[in-house]
Amino acid sequence: MTLREQEVAAVFAELTGGAASDPLDTQTLLATLAEGGRRLFHARGALVAYVPGGRTPLLTDGTDPSLGALAADAARWGEGAGYDARTTGCALVDVDVTTHSAQLRWPRWSVRAQALGFGRATALPLHGRDEEIGALVLFTAADKPLDEEALALVRLFAEVAGHTLTLQRELNETQVLAGQLEHALSSRVVVEQAKGILAARHGLSLDEAFSGLRGYARSHRRKLADVAREVTEGRLPELLAQ
Fold it and tell me: Is the peptide bond prior to 145 cis by the omega test (within 30 degrees of 0)?
């Protein structure tokens, strides 16, 4: 395995968090993506802009705080190589940001990029399932264009990054849904227990016990599950008492 292949393997392992059971949180993943891109392609700096699921809010990170700020400002301005790549889905390869045409196209962004010491930029869209979810921007000096091998590899890197971000978001959504379902199931169990207690205590049917439980919760403007839990814990002995 060559040195570059070893570097690629190491960066890709960092992106995936080492194992599916231990994924990186979103902001750490973005920082890893930016730093991995900078290191892998010997760039002077890198930034990433990410819109989870193609929706706001925009999340950003960079190999330097000034680059993270540039990514956020570019979105606000509606200009810049990364903004164009993210919104059009088209890569911008090895763009000289010092040219007059770049300054006309991105008046604020190009000035900021040059002020930070960068002369060239390569921006690649990050693809989600059916839409663009962000962009990766690599910055180099004006006299340091990326070679063909690096350009081919950076495209692969961006594809893996987009796929990883998508999987991470889907995993988070699955975990949230699982938590909601678990809470709902737990609440349902508590309500059923409370119904049984009330039915046995007052000689009621389960439907009558539930009606009384629900009526008490409504009249006191409380959640049904909270009232039911207090019944099961013996903290509402007066409920339905005559």
Answer: no
